[in-house]
Amino acid sequence: NQLNQSNEHYTSLRARANEEGDQMAKCFDESHQAYSSGDGARAKELSNKGKEHQRKMEQLNKQASDWIFVGTYDTPLNAIDLHGLYVKEAIARTDQALQEAKARGDSQVNLIVGKGLHSRGGMAKIKPAIEELMQKHQLIAELDPNNSGVLIVQMNSGNRGRGVGSDEISRRIERDDESCIIM
Predict the structure, then answer these.
(1) Does pTM top 0.85 for this prediction?
(2) Is 79 helix (H, G, I), strand (E, B) or coil?
(3) What is the pLDDT of residues 85-110, one digit of tens each?
(4) Where are the residues of the annotated region Disordered (predicted)?
(5) Residue ranges of the domains in the chain?
């Protein structure tokens, strides 16, 4: 799946999403300035324009996420490749995969999280987030002894009924004042 991250279609979708995100931020900033200067009508117009850019950005990122994730179907049934996904996307895909694995009665799931070599600064982002997700679901996830970019999740190791949803985990990760605790 790492090769797919260089695919022109995929990179184009992510680049277009980033452009929409830049336009969104610009509109929201200008909206705030217009509101501060007393031009409520212009502020509302810019805010609506920013929301449209946000919708387009989310749509493009979803297309990119769907495209790269579909490309992982050549992996074994009990494996999920998270390369090329943003952290929030990886959490949602993992959450879905865990639910499907539990419904199938799988005893383990292999999560290909990567080592972070292609992340900015060479620091893994997906792996710590997925490890936190496993804690929230009270599941045991151990590094594959043959590949430190793979987490092996034992599906029968916890009680999934007491977990926290993927949106909450994403919110916690995105907060600057709260760090991930990995045990």
Answers:
(1) no
(2) strand
(3) 889 999 999 998 888 888 888 888 89
(4) 34-58
(5) 2-71, 79-154
